């Protein structure tokens, strides 16, 4: 038994080393990707249900490696967060999206409001405020075009700093959206502590909202609470007409998901923009 225990430990150490090595390699490759422009933004259209038209996009990052493989953000954002590279990733994304929005506006298109995912790590240092306002000015993007999405991740860690950053950027004219709403346990207190303009109902509720009575009531409750607080509501991950039907009836005003459109490369958005978002 002792021998067996020993070999288990070394096998464990082996896998540990393996994981650490993979992470170190990924971190190195990501650093390279940031400098050499291998990170690319896709844009997922958002639909306003009352107007029946496009009302904005969510920018979603993709890593296109030299060999053509595309790596999902789910596989590298956590590594970026743990290594501190997230600071550079977030700034890269901000710059890239502002540049795209400026190009659409200059070409006469109306992209509505464009949402950017910001890691809560970026809400720990106040210099992000200057970075964002300088970048807006540099690209001549009206602040009202930009919405920043955060999950509740680290919002409670450094409340004063996060509040100051959010209020200062709101004063500049940007909007704030709380992502994956309903999944964490302090969601309600966040709505009071931070200046959110929108909440995004998490896909896990939307998934079976038309079948699961509990998720249906939670979704209805979230929507009516948001309305009474004057906060806009968007549902993510809407894939079917049944889900859409439920959300319409529950008074949800915007949706995003494969039902309307998957995330698209920037140049595929132009057709949609030219047609006012009617697919
Ligand atoms: P998220 O912000 O919750 O983004 C929504 C995810 O759901 C996206 O995955 C999107 O492609 C996917 N999705 C959209 N519609 C549907 C649908 O109808 N059904 C299903 N099953 N999925 C749908 P993606 O692009 O892989 O992004 C994963 C996560 O990575 C994002 O979750 C976000 O937390 C993070 N992320 C993505 N882009 C960025 C970025 O630019 N910066 C940062 N910091 N994080 C990002
Ligand atoms: Ca998001
Ligand atoms: Ca989300
Ligand atoms: Ca989600």
From TrEMBL:
The chain holds residues 771 to 1049 of 1192 of the full protein. It comes from Chitinimonas prasina. Signal peptide: none annotated. This is EAL domain-containing protein. Residues 23-277 form the EAL domain. It comes from the Bacteria.
């Amino acid at each position: 038994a002792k021998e067996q225990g020993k070999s288990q430990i070394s096998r464990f150490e082996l896998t540990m080393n393996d994981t650490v090595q993979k992470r170190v390699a990924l971190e190195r490759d990501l650093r390279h990707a940031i400098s050499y422009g291998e990170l690319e933004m896709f844009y997922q259209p958002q639909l306003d249900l009352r107007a029946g038209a496009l009302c904005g996009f969510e920018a979603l990052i993709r890593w296109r490696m030299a060999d053509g493989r595309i790596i999902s953000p789910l596989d590298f954002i956590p590594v970026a967060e743990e290594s501190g590279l997230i600071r550079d990733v977030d700034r890269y994304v901000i710059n890239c999206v502002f540049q795209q929005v400026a190009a659409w506006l200059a070409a006469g298109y109306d992209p509505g409001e464009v949402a950017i995912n910001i890691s809560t790590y970026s809400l720990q240092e106040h210099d992000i405020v200057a970075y964002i306002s300088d970048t807006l000015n540099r690209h001549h993007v009206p602040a009202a075009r930009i919405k920043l999405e955060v999950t509740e991740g680290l919002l409670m860690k450094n409340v004063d700093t996060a509040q100051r950053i959010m209020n200062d950027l709101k004063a500049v004219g940007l909007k704030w959206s709380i992502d994956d709403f309903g999944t964490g346990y302090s969601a309600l207190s966040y709505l009071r502590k931070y200046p959110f303009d929108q909440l995004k109902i998490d896909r896990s509720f939307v998934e079976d909202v038309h079948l699961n009575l509990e998720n249906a009531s939670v979704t209805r409750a979230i929507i009516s609470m948001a309305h009474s607080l004057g906060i806009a509501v968007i549902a993510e991950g809407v894939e079917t007409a049944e889900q859409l039907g439920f959300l319409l009836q529950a008074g949800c005003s915007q949706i995003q998901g494969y039902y309307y459109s998957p995330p698209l490369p920037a140049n595929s958005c132009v057709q949609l923009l030219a047609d006012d978002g009617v697919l």
